[in-house]
C-alpha cells in the first residue's frame, strides 16, 4: 500500500507546472495518505517527493498560511540532505544545514564507536554538505567547518592517511580564520587545530625516527 501511495505522490510531482498545482485536493489527499503510511519510518524517495510538494504548496500559499507547509518540507528533506539527494530547494539549504548539524555530530560519535572507516567517512560527507549549504554570513559557519575538520582528523586517525590529516589541518585552520572574522568561538577552534597539528607533528616525528 505504501508503494501505491508513493507512486501517486510521485506522479503528482511529475505533473506540477506551477506551485498552485500542488494545492489540488487530490494532491492533498495523496500527501496525507503517504504521510500516514510512512509514520516514523524514513524513506528517501518518499521524503524527496513529499518535500518538493510541500515546498510548492508553501510557495503558493499566502504569508501566514504557509508555515505548516514549510515545516513539513523541512522535515521531509532532512534525510535527503543528509544522504546527499539532489536537487533540493536552494532557499532551504541553509536551514537544512542547521537542522542537520546534530545529526552530523551523532554520526561522528557513532563512527568513533564502530570499527572501520565507513561511519566516519559518512559523517565527514555530511559535515561537508553542511559547510557547502550554510550561508556565507552564518554565525555558526566556523563551528560547521570545525566539525568537518574534526571528522576528517578522526578519519585520518582511523585510516592512517597523512593526506586526510593534512586536509583536516587545512580545514581546521579555515575554521579558526572564520571564527576570528566573525567573533566566533575562537578558543574552541584553536584548540581543535592545535590537536590536529600535534597529531601531525607526532606522525612526522615517528617517520623521521
Write a concise keyword list for the protein shown above.
9 helices; 209 residues; single chain; Serine Threonine Protein Phosphatase 5, Tetratricopeptide repeat; 2 domains; mainly alpha
Detail the topology: elements first, then pairings:
Blueprint: H1 2-15, H2 25-38, H3 44-60, H4 67-83, H5 93-113, H6 118-133, H7 141-159, H8 162-181, H9 186-208
Q: Would you identify the regions where 5 or more consecutive residues have pLDDT less than 50?
A: none
CATH architecture of the largest domain: Alpha Horseshoe
Largest sheet, strands/sense/barrel: none
Tell the overall outline: elongated
How many structural domains are formed by the residues?
Answer: 2
CATH topology of the largest domain: Serine Threonine Protein Phosphatase 5, Tetratricopeptide repeat
Distance between the termini: 65 Å
| Structure class | mainly alpha
Description:
With 209 residues, this protein is mostly helical. It has two domains: 2-88, no CATH class; 93-208, Serine Threonine Protein Phosphatase 5, Tetratricopeptide repeat. The protein has nine helices and no strands. The protein has helices at residues 2-15, 25-38, 44-60, 67-83, 93-113, 118-133, 141-159, 162-181, 186-208. Helix 1 (2-15) packs across helix 3 and helix 5 runs parallel beside helix 7 (141-159).
Concise synopsis of the structure shown:
The protein has helices at 2-15, 25-38, 44-60, 67-83, 93-113, 118-133, 141-159, 162-181, 186-208. It is mainly alpha-helical and 209 residues long.
Amino acid at each position: 500500500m505504501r508503494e501505491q501511495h508513493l507512486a501517486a505522490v510521485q506522479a503528482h510531482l511529475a505533473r506540477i507546472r506551477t506551485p498552485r498545482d500542488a494545492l489540488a485536493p487530490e494532491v492533498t489527499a495523496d500527501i496525507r495518505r503517504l504521510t500516514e503510511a510512512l509514520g516514523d519510518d524514513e524513506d528517501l524517495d518518499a521524503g524527496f517527493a513529499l518535500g518538493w510538494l510541500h515546498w510548492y504548496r508553501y510557495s503558493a500559499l499566502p504569508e501566514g498560511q504557509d508555515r505548516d507547509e514549510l515545516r513539513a518540507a523541512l522535515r521531509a528533506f532532512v534525510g535527503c540532505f543528509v544522504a546527499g539527494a539532489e536537487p533540493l530547494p536552494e532557499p532551504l539549504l541553509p536551514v537544512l544545514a542547521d537542522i542537520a548539524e546534530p545529526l552530523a555530530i551523532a554520526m561522528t560519535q557513532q563512527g568513533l564507536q564502530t570499527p572501520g572507516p565507513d561511519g566516519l567517512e559518512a559523517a565527514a560527507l555530511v559535515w561537508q554538505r553542511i559547510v557547502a549549504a550554510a550561508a556565507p554570513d552564518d554565525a555558526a559557519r566556523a563551528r560547521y567547518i570545525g566539525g568537518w575538520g574534526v571528522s576528517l582528523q578522526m578519519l585520518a586517525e582511523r585510516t592512517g592517511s597523512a593526506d586526510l590529516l593534512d586536509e583536516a589541518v587545512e580545514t581546521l585552520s579555515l575554521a579558526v580564520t572564520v571564527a576570528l572574522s566573525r567573533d566566533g568561538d575562537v578558543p574552541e577552534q584553536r584548540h581543535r587545530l592545535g590537536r590536529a597539528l600535534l597529531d601531525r607533528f607526532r606522525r612526522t616525528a615517528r617517520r623521521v625516527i
